Structure formats: C-alpha cells, structure tokens
Amino acid sequence: MEILVALIAAALFVLVGMPIGYVLIAASALAIWLTTDTPLVVVPLRMFNGTDSFPLIAIPLFILAGALMNASGISQRLTDFAARLVGWMRAGLAMTTTASSMLFSEMSGSAVADAAALGSVLIPAMKERGYPAPFAAAVLSSSATIAILIPPSIPMILYGAVTGASIAQLFLAGVVPGVLAGVGIMLVSRALARRGGFGESEPFRWNRTVRAARAAAWPLLIPLVILGGIFLGWFTATEAAAVAVLLAAVMGFLGYRSLRRADAAEALVESARQTAVVMLLVAGSAVLGWYLANQQAPARLTGFVLSQVESAWAVALVLDGILLLAGTILHSAAAVVLLVPILLPLAESVGIGPVHFGMMVTVSLAVGQQTPPVASVLIATCSIAKTGIWEVMRVNVFFIAALLAVLGLVTFWPDLSLFLPDLLLSD
To answer: Burial level of 172, CB count in 10 A (0-12/13-18/19+)?
Structure first.
C-alpha cells in the first residue's frame, strides 16, 4: 500500500505536466509524509547523498568535452571522415549519420548531445538529397542512441556509481553491442532506402578518404587516450573525462585554432544546463529509491516474480519488459538510479551478474529513448527535422526492431558483451 501511494502520486504529478525531476522529489516527499514517521528533512539529505559521488563528476565533464568538440569543429571532421568511409554505399548519407554517431559517441557519452551536434548538419543534408524528413529524423535518432552503448556512456557511469560495478568493465562490455546496433541500423537504412527509391550513392574517391582521415587523425586519438587510459589503469573514468576536456580544449584553442572564447563560454553554459537536468533527475530518483528500499520493494518484487516464474530466461524477459516500459516514461538517468537498486537483486537471484545486467539496462534504455511519451532523443531530432513524432515513429519502428534484436542477444548470450572485459580485465 505504501509503495502505491508513491506511484499514484508520481502518476498524478506527471499528468498535470510537472517535470520528471520535480515529480520524483514531490512524490517521494508526499509518500514519506503520509506513510512514515520520518521527518521530511530526510528529502534534501537523500538528494545530496544521491549526487555526492566521485564517479558522477564524469558526467558534466564528458558533456563539456562533447560541447567543446562540437564548437571547435572536431565533430565536423569526424563526420567528413565517416562520409568518406561509408558515403559511397546505398543510402550513403544515412550510413554517414550512423558512422558519425559511432565516432562521436566515443567522446560525448550522451545521446542527446550526439543528436544535437550531428542533427543540425546531417538532417538538412539528407533532406536536400531527397531523403524523406521522417526517415532522416529516424536514422539520426536511432543512431544517436548508440552514444549510451559505445563508451564512454553516461548511463553506464551512473550504473557503476549506483551498484559499485567496475565502470571499466561496463565500458568494455558496451563495445560489441554498440557496434552491432550501428551495423543493424545501417542495414535497415539500406533496406528502407532501396524500397523507397532514394539515397543514391556517390563514387568512392580514395584521395578524398585519405584527406579526411588526415583531418580527423588528432580527434580520433581522443577516444584512444580516454579508453586506453581507463583500461590500462592510468586513470579512472572521472579522470578520463577531465582528460577529454583538456584534449578538446587544447585541440580547439591551440591545434586547429577554431575554438573562440565565446564558443567555449557557450559550451560551458550548455553543459551546465544539461548537467543540471541530469543531476536533478539523479537526486529525485535517489529519494524515491531510498523510500522504496525502506518499504522493501526489492525483496517484494523478487519474491513475487520468483513465485510466478522459475526459469532464469523468463525472469530475464520480465526484467527486460520492466526496463523497456520504464524507458518510455523515464529519462535514462532517472531509470538507472531509481530501478537498478530494486531490480538488481532479482537479476542476481537467477545468476545475472552486475555487468551483464548493466548491459541489459543500457540497451533497454537505448530503446526507451526512441519510444514516446518521453523519447528525449526522438523529440530532439523531430524538432531539427521539423516533422511530427508519429510520422517519424512509422519509420523508426524498423530501427527499434534492430535495437530490440541487440537487446535479445545481450540478454540471452551474455558472452557477446562479457568476453571483452573477461579477456582484457581478467585478473
């Protein structure tokens, strides 16, 4: 009954249009006041404790690194390189969009940042070349969500902070699913373009590819330094984020001399704005998660599910279903902080380890970024493409199917994602 009070209050606050971060805080405070004797001073204390974590410092730093690279034109160099690599294929610009997202995601860790950085360039370019606007928005939206699969990933950082799981292992585990998601999106793009009769390819030019590779050489070193430093133990994920900011600033100010002070100031402001949104969600989720834990929600859920199903595969399907549903109504940051402490005991009860479950969570939330009503990435790309959400969804369902296929592989074939951390980080 106590748990229902919090959930009903949250649903009512959402219906009246309250932002999700405030919904989580208000619903938690109301439930604590009505169902417990705990003083409400616990609310700000739990909000502070939920965000007082060293690994979480990586979030604003990776967001800032992505903003600086976008402002200095580094993301454009990566896009040009991707265009030369895959632009000669059928639906070449769609392929370029996906490849660019895979490259840029290795530096930003944020799907929304990826969509904003690449969408303003690639969506108009696709529309000018005859690609339908809904297709262009769907390709960019689904491609941008790869940013939370390929490291560094903000949801993975949050997951590691919440569970204590190794962020380095999570990063390595995300590589193969991220690449598979990119390949799946490319294959769907090619099939849709062929069926729709658009997306004619351009001839491959070796000299242009070499020039683009030279122009992108220094930016391509950034993910190698970041990820290599983490995996070799030179620095933590948080320290790697600081290194990413330093490299982006040095390349922008001194290397290419394309980053102006005004651009850097704007990047700082935008990064602060995005960080505030994420951390408010984290703080609110921490309060509600603490309340649900005190009401023994994890134990109750575990007991209920195990009383209904016995197979580990069935429990895995239940977990995926809960995560997919949560992804449609919660921001990925809120979903991680709120649901993972509740669902992880259930996962571990059937032999699903923390890193394996972390991949299930991340891929499920990647799908959630594409499914209304929240669909943060989808909404951002629809705004850039100037087209309606439901028009885009009629195309996006094919890309969502590709992401769901990756989720199935990650869930029922753990070695697909776990073999890299087992191989490279084994004792």
So the answer is: buried
- Its pTM stands at 0.85
Q: What is the pLDDT of residues 147-163, one digit of tens each?
A: 888 888 888 988 998 88
Where do we find the tokens 């696709």? 126
Q: What would the two tokens of residue 132 be?
A: 């339908």
Q: Which of 98, 75, 200 is nearest to 145 (CA)?
A: 98
What is the biggest distance separating any 2 CA atoms in the chain, rounded to whole angstroms? 72
What CA–CA distance (Å, rounded) separates 91 from 80?
Answer: 16
Exposure b/e, 62-100, CB count within 10 A at least 16 = b: bbbbbbbbbbbbbbbbbbbbbbbbbbebebbbbbbbbbb
Task: Supply the angle between the helices 237-250 and 217-231 in degrees, to the nearest 10.
Answer: 160
Calpha distance 326→285 (Å, rounded): 13
In the chain, where the domains are located: 54-279+298-424
**How many H helices and E strands in the chain?**
22, 0
